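ARCHIVE CARD
CATEGORY: sequence design from structure
SOURCE FIELD: tokenized fold
FIELD CONTENT:
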């Protein structure tokens, strides 16, 4: 009889994985776990950030469960792949609701935020993003929290860096596939840079991603007389673009948004990207003990260094898990209230705060590629990194 029961439960769990897991645990006498969702792009050419974030969340959840979970209840991580397609996000939010998952971490790019917020607006659910930075979702009292500084704040920091280096004629290349972020950075950068006396002499919305297209863009940029080029795209695309400039012998200086800063940028850029300067989410020159422990665990498990998406996903997951423990359950409204009321948190790299709308206030760093590595350099004085005028 017992064998028949568990055989049936196993078959059921294959058809209904989350409910199946809960029923099997209940049959074994264990208190059912609390499901916490993860949604991100974990397949396709632009999946690096989503995959690294999922891995970090796995580490945080495993640590949490080893420490006893929520008063003895374990957390079950429920993973869904949006395949980098914003049109899939709404359906996945609905699936989380059907599986009784009420708190979801993820949505790693800004183009996912709008569809997810709309889908979750009439559901009792809380969305917590590690890396959505578009200003379009700032200062809204909704069921969406994000633990990264806004795109506008990094654009202003970039403007200050470039202006301080005496550069006045700039080209801007920004990606069409994540326009909610890339255009946001461009517009805020343009406003700040022109206010400082600079001029945008060339822009290109990157729609066609090929060596031939990038070669043409390089030629047009060079002809515009731009002294420097700001790239707002993924690390892979940023590396490919710069290579086309260097093939033409161009010595134009390169700057990039935080999206450019990834292991892929170093891997695919080679010597062409030496000297490129990128705005980065805050990094300590001397890493904390907590960061070193996390990095070791990440590399032991996955054989590669964590990315900024990994770090922010770990921070976001730890915030959510702390909230689950504090409130003793997964009620989205109570968790949101706890996070906002607590306000101050310690991340792997820095302490940060969350305002009354659930938007994080965090600093930036500036890095330069030197000998194939990212090296932290000073952001010009006059205003603290990440602080808005």
């Amino acid at each position: 009889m017992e064998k028949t029961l568990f055989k049936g439960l196993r078959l059921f769990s294959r058809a209904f994985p989350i409910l199946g897991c809960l029923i099997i645990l209940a049959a074994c006498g264990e208190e059912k776990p609390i499901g916490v969702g993860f949604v991100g792009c974990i397949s396709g050419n632009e999946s690096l950030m989503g995959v690294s974030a999922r891995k970090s969340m796995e580490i945080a959840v495993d640590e949490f469960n080893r420490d006893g979970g929520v008063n003895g209840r374990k957390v079950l991580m429920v993973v869904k792949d949006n395949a980098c397609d914003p049109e899939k996000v709404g359906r996945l939010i609905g699936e989380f609701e059907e599986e009784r998952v009420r708190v979801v971490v993820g949505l790693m790019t800004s183009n996912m935020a709008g569809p997810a917020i709309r889908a979750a607006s009439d559901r009792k659910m809380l969305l917590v993003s590690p890396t959505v930075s578009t200003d379009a979702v700032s200062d809204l009292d909704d069921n969406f929290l994000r633990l990264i500084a806004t795109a506008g704040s990094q654009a202003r920091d970039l403007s200050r860096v470039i202006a301080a280096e005496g550069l006045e004629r700039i080209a801007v290349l920004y990606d069409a596939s994540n326009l909610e972020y890339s255009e946001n950075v461009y517009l805020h950068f343009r406003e700040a840079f022109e206010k400082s006396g600079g001029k945008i002499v060339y822009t290109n919305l990157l729609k066609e991603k090929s060596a031939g297209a990038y070669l043409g863009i390089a030629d047009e940029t060079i002809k515009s007389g731009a002294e420097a080029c700001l790239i707002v795209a993924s690390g892979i695309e940023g590396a490919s673009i710069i290579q086309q400039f260097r093939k033409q012998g161009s010595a134009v200086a390169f700057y990039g948004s935080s999206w450019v800063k990834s292991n892929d940028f170093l891997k695919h850029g080679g010597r062409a990207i030496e000297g490129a300067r990128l705005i980065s989410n805050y990094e300590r020159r001397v890493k904390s003990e907590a960061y070193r422990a996390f990095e070791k665990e990440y590399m032991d498990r996955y054989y590669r260094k964590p990315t900024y998406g990994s770090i922010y996903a770990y921070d976001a997951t730890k915030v959510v898990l702390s909230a689950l423990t504090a409130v003793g359950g997964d009620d989205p409204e109570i968790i949101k209230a706890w996070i906002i009321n607590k306000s101050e948190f310690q991340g792997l790299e820095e302490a940060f705060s969350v305002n009354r709308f659930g938007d994080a206030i965090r600093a930036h760093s500036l890095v330069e590629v030197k000998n194939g590595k990212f090296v932290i350099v000073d952001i010009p004085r006059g205003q603290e990194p990440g602080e808005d005028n």
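CARD ANNOTATION: Confidence is low (pLDDT under 50) at residues 1-28, 383-389. Residues 152-283+365-377 form a domain with the Rossmann fold fold (CATH 3.40.50.2300).
SHELF: design records, drawer C
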